[in-house]
Amino acid sequence: MVQGPYKELKIRSYDGEKDRARVEELERGCEIVGPADRVFLFTDTLGDPICRIRNSPSFYMLVAESDNELVGVIQGSIKLVTMARPHGKSGLARVGYILGLRVSPLHRRQGIGSRLVRSLEQWFASNHVEFAYMATDKENKASVKLFVDSLGYVKFRTPAILVNPVSPYRALHLPSHVEIKKLGTKEAELLYRKFMSSAEFFPKDIDNILENRLSLGTWVAYYKGEAWEDIRYDGASTGSEYWRGPRNWAMVSVWNSAEVFKLRVQGRAPLSCWIYTKSCKLMDRFFPCFKIPAIPDFVDPFGFYFMYGVHCEGKSSAQLVRTLCQFVRNMARKSEDCKLVVTEIGARDEVRLDIPQWKCLEDLWCIKALNNQEPSSLHEIAMSPPTRALFVDPREV
Ligand SMILES: CC(C)(COP(=O)(O)OP(=O)(O)OC[C@H]1O[C@@H](n2cnc3c(N)ncnc32)[C@H](O)[C@@H]1OP(=O)(O)O)[C@@H](O)C(=O)NCCC(=O)NCCS
Question: pLDDT tens across 172-184, in order?
Answer without folding.
Answer: 889 999 999 999 9
